[in-house]
Design brief:
about 375 residues; alpha+beta; 5-stranded mixed β-sheet; 12 helices
Length: about 375
């Protein structure tokens, strides 16, 4: 038994590490939703599920033409693979069909299936639903998820006792291999997930302002050039928070930071309602740029007025129960036929902002549109 247990443990563990590594590469290539705004993440996860089902099918086809310990080992491999994937998935619309296809393939190719196994599959899907509702992500509920995985694997082989005749030593070896592979795979998945989250955070830091969560100058420069090449109707708003340096001087930089955060949150909420395709970027200390694709001059002015009206309602509370009222000056510019590059549009928006500031604060400048 010791030899079979060692073989099962090594084969199952290293095979699953390779499968998980392939999944990680697939995720790096497809999971680019840095803003977590994807409305249907299960669509991407269905691709991961297809990857798992192909692997499971290959294992079960090999098992179909094998016998004895080799056949049982291949089925055990498939079991660990599907459990690992249910841990990696985040959406039930991807988990449920993947699990059903796995057990359907098992029933069709191996033939060890009865009403008890069908009932166990239903119970397993019920538990996976509970996991996704209350114990996700898996790396934040490690003990519960690992114990559930071990119970699922052990329960499978208990159900197989009646229909799959094998020696007690073989069954014990398969269970030991399952436990070792499950623990090893789970640990590896935790390490990969943390690495993936760090990579996502680093990628996000390159594109976003760390304080306000608006896009940064690098993202703005890239986006405005792309939009200029793509959109005939393109407008740009240059925004500057009024008297911001005075806020920092009088109340301190922590308060100034809170003003910036509140300013961006207010603008983002407003833009989601009136200009959902707009892109807000922080391009300086209290300076922001708002890219408005497919927006003509009159529409851009209306958006500027709506944003300014909403900003005037902003109050940033202070510790002494007082509050700071925020206003902003805005320069508006729209692409012209004579514009040779996005730089021309940017300079005109900035010039209109400066002109509005020179005329007073809390204004909109549209002079050189």
């Amino acid at each position: 038994m010791a030899y079979q247990a060692l073989v099962a443990s090594l084969v199952m563990t290293f095979f699953n590490l390779g499968v998980i590594g392939g999944l990680q590469r697939l995720m790096h290539g497809l999971d680019m939703d840095l803003e977590n705004r994807h409305l249907y993440p299960w669509r991407t996860e269905l691709i991961y599920g297809a990857y798992e089902v192909v692997i499971a099918a290959l294992l079960l086809v090999l098992a179909r033409f094998s016998s004895g310990f080799t056949q049982a080992l291949l089925v055990d491999l498939q079991l660990v693979v599907v459990i690992n994937f249910t841990n990696a998935f985040k959406t039930l619309p991807a988990i449920i069909p993947t699990v059903l296809l796995n057990f359907g393939l098992f029933a069709a190719l191996i033939g060890h299936a009865d009403w008890q196994l069908a009932l166990a599959v239903i119970a397993y899907l019920g538990w996976l639903t509970v996991e996704e509702m209350y114990f996700a992500p898996f790396d934040e509920h490690m003990m519960i998820r690992v114990l559930a995985d071990l119970v699922a694997g052990g329960g499978f082989w208990v159900l197989m006792q009646a229909s799959w005749v094998m020696s007690a030593t073989m069954r014990a070896a398969l269970l030991i291999g399952f436990v070792v592979a499950t623990l090893g795979s789970f640990t590896y998945m935790i390490l990969l997930r943390r690495e993936h989250l760090i990579d996502r955070a680093n990628a996000r830091d390159v594109r976003y302002d760390a304080l306000t969560d608006a896009y940064n100058w690098l993202s703005f420069r890239k986006a405005i050039n792309q939009r200029f090449d793509q959109n005939a109707d393109l407008s740009l708003l240059a925004l500057d928070i009024d008297q911001f340096k005075q806020v920092n001087h009088q109340y301190g930089h922590p308060t100034g930071n809170q003003v910036l955060i509140t300013f961006v949150d207010t603008l983002q909420a407003t833009l989601e309602m009136i200009a959902p395709h707009a892109m807000l970027a922080r391009t300086g200390g209290e300076e922001f740029m708002l890219i408005l694709p497919d927006t003509n001059a009159s529409q851009a002015l209306a958006i500027a007025r709506a944003c300014q009206a909403r900003i005037r309602e902003v109050l940033v509370p202070l510790e002494d129960s007082d509050a700071i009222r925020v206003t902003a000056t805005i320069g508006v510019a729209t692409r012209q036929i004579e514009d040779e590059s996005a730089r021309d549009l940017y300079r005109r928006a900035d010039a209109n902002l400066i002109a509005a500031q020179e005329a007073g604060r809390d204004r909109i400048g549209v002079g050189q549109r």
